[in-house]
Specification:
The protein is of the alpha/beta class. Helix content is 43%, strand content 11%. The longest helix has 19 residues.
Length: 300
């Protein structure tokens, strides 16, 4: 992404942080103000992995980070001690492994797939992981580009450049523990379905549509696709999304009057009546869209 010659990407990026998007749904960046706040804070929707070419930050978002007192992510990914200490929470309870969740034939298929795909972790370790976590690792490794990166990492780098403290709204141990409420058998079935479709060379149109909606910054479309592509998970959305949203907003009510923050969480947590945007509004805050068009550069 270190490129020469600036060119506009569909529309040029505005430089003032207060600029508003022409379409309230087509932005990932939101200003939090009102309710007696002395300084505004900003809410931003992330995606865990995206190709490097699409991982830029807008001038407005960079400006928000530069002016804030602190940056909050879902978890403090800069805290290596906490991250390492939480490794045990990534595994299934009761010494369960993937072999316990599949028929012998299914297990062989899963094992062969993991072993032939490049992974940072050996299969002996991965097969103890909660299947949704293992599936996430496969999906990240299966991206079509070689330079995939977590948006959270880009945000952390920008925060570090501006010497901003990074904190977490929750811990990785808590996040991983949530998955114990979703039957491992159901998680394993989803993992196997992903592997089988990948083996068949099927293109994941649903994932591609979600990525397109994210890049278009269309939160309404993103919410629609999440419901459409994960119908079996709907009954677990309270656990995965809505309860966490409510917990975050309760925490933010205490933090917002004390300091100006940039809050960067998964974009799926933002839209809808149970989303962070609406929950903050219900608490009396003004949550308004901010232009987040990104100026890209092209190498010549």
């Amino acid at each position: 992404m270190a490129l020469v010659c600036v060119t506009a990407c569909s529309q040029s990026s505005k430089t003032k942080t207060e600029s508003k998007s022409s379409n309230a749904n087509n932005t990932l960046l939101w200003k939090i103000s009102g309710k007696g706040l002395e300084k505004p804070s900003y809410l931003y929707g992330t995606i865990h992995m995206i190709c490097g070419a699409d991982a830029g930050l807008s001038n407005n978002f960079k400006d928000a980070i530069a002016k804030c007192d602190e940056v909050y992510l879902e978890i403090d990914m800069s805290n290596i001690i906490e991250m390492m200490g939480a490794l045990s929470s990534l595994t299934m309870l009761g010494d369960t492994t993937l072999e316990d969740l599949y028929t012998p034939e299914e297990f062989v298929r899963v094992k062969k797939y993991f072993e032939k795909t490049s992974s940072m972790l050996p299969f002996d370790m991965l097969q103890k992981f909660k299947p949704m976590l293992a599936s996430g690792l496969l999906e990240q490794g299966g991206m079509e580009c070689d330079d995939a990166i977590a948006i959270e990492q880009v945000v952390m780098e920008q925060a570090a450049d501006n010497k901003k403290k990074i904190s977490g709204l929750e811990t990785i141990k808590y996040q991983a523990g949530i998955l114990d409420s979703i039957p491992y058998k159901m998680q394993a079935a989803q993992l196997l379905a992903f592997i089988d479709s990948s083996e068949a060379g099927a293109k994941n149109n649903e994932t591609e549509a979600l990525m397109d909606a994210y890049k278009a910054q269309d939160l309404s479309k993103l919410e629609e696709l999440m419901i459409k592509t994960e119908p079996g998970m709907l009954k677990y959305y309270d656990i995965l999304l809505f309860n966490r949203n409510r917990n975050w907003v309760a925490k933010l009510k205490d933090l917002l009057p004390k300091k100006s923050m940039v809050i960067a969480v998964g974009a799926g947590h933002l839209p809808g009546k149970n989303g962070v945007i609406n929950l903050l509004k219900k608490e009396g805050y003004q949550v308004t869209p901010v232009d987040n068009k990104i100026t890209k550069t092209k190498e010549i």
